[in-house]
Amino acid sequence: MSIIAQQTVQMKQVSRGNYLMRNVLKHNAVFNEGSKGDAAYILTEGKIEISGIIESHKKVFAILNPISIFGEMALFLDDGVRTATAIALEDSKVVVVTKDDLDEFMHDSPKVIASIITVLVSRLKTTTRKAMKVPSIGLGIVRIFDLFSTCGKMELKYNPTIKTFADTFVTTTEKIEQYIHGLADQGLLILGRDANDNRIIRIREREMLHAVMQKKE
């Protein structure tokens, strides 16, 4: 049994029966991003998706299985505002841990403090690693164009390309268009129309794309 699983039983004992066990039906939210939060949750049965909205796009941060603590940041942040949305992917059960419960746990059970800190530190490390792996959008776009040119594809339809880039880099089409027009201003791309008057993006020279990649790396 994991440390957190062991502490679930201990938490119930420490709280002297004042804890709540909540049933969450599939597709229902435990809480929503931006709402006020006054409790953390321990998932004992089911599956929970943690997600957030980044530049108008949904981003899934984690899929949680028992036994997992989530929503704990609301107990530590001054404004207590939820920074993510938690939705049940299947019928689930969670133990509700209020701020009063947490104060009692921290006073009476050092092991509970240790387990919560372990979760927080682990999440911070994971978030940091992911942040470090996120590529520069501009460099990512250049690399993709370079791949197309390597395969002999020098001309792309404008609208589908913009949408695909936006979905890939989890950003807006407006921001992608800013990068595309910036590359066109540098002479790397040519923006125009084909014989059917459809907007297109034409890769000018592959060697120029290589030069930009080497400079940025």
TrEMBL record:
Q: Which InterPro entries match?
A: cNMP-bd_CS, cNMP-bd_dom, cNMP-bd_dom_sf, Env_Response_Regulators, RmlC-like_jellyroll
Task: Please give the SMART domains that the UniProt record associates with this protein.
Answer: cNMP
PANTHER family, per the entry: CRP FAMILY TRANSCRIPTIONAL REGULATORY PROTEIN, HTH-TYPE TRANSCRIPTIONAL REGULATOR ARCR
The chain positions of domain Cyclic nucleotide-binding read 30-123
Q: SUPFAM superfamilies under this entry?
A: cAMP-binding domain-like
**Highest taxon of source:** Bacteria
- Its recorded name reads Cyclic nucleotide-binding domain-containing protein
